[in-house]
Design goal:
Blueprint: E1 5-6, H1 8-37, H2 46-71, E2 73-74, E3 90-95, E4 100-107, E5 118-120, H3 124-129, E6 137-142, E7 145-155
Parallel strand pairs: 1-2, 4-5
Antiparallel strand pairs: 3-4, 3-7, 6-7
Length: 156
């Protein structure tokens, strides 16, 4: 399986979360379990059950983060070109139906955020844009229907 291409910033963010969950969060949960054990009968101890559930969820998230980080490909941001669209580009397109310009940042699925117009290279619009150049018209099949876009500008 090919890894996810991510920025150094996102890699550092995920590593920091993994470090927090592996140390501080684990200790907090362990302490909560110890306190809950002191309440007596574990079979009817809601605090103990909640702490054990939190522990399980934390361990699952630790493993998920380890998997992401071990497969991550850190993007060489200095190698991003502005001739053809790829992850890392900021792309301004003209929505042909609305006759409005929209600027997207093309990112990995791990960094996508629709509110910030950061779209994944795997999203319908991202897939349509990847590999194309300024001046080209591309079409994306979105959940809202087909979307025609003319590529106006590509930058880093």
């Amino acid at each position: 399986m090919a890894g996810n291409t991510i920025t150094q910033t996102k890699y550092n963010e995920l590593q920091a979360e993994l470090d927090y969950r592996s140390t501080t969060k684990r200790k907090e949960i362990s302490d909560a379990i110890k306190v809950a054990r002191e309440f007596g009968d574990l079979s009817e101890n809601a605090e103990y059950s909640a702490a054990k559930n939190e522990q399980e969820a934390n361990e699952i998230e630790i493993e998920r983060l380890k998997g992401i980080l071990s497969d991550a490909i850190i993007m060489d941001e200095s190698a991003i070109n502005t001739k053809t669209i790829s992850i890392g580009n900021v792309v301004t397109v003209l929505d042909l139906e609305e006759n409005e310009e929209v600027t997207y940042t093309l990112v990995s699925t791990l960094e996508a955020n629709s509110r910030e117009l950061k779209i994944s290279d795997k999203s319908p619009i991202g897939k349509a844009l990847v590999g194309h150049s300024k001046g080209e018209t591309v079409y994306a099949q979105t959940p809202a229907g087909p979307l025609g876009m003319k590529i106006v500008k590509i930058s880093k």
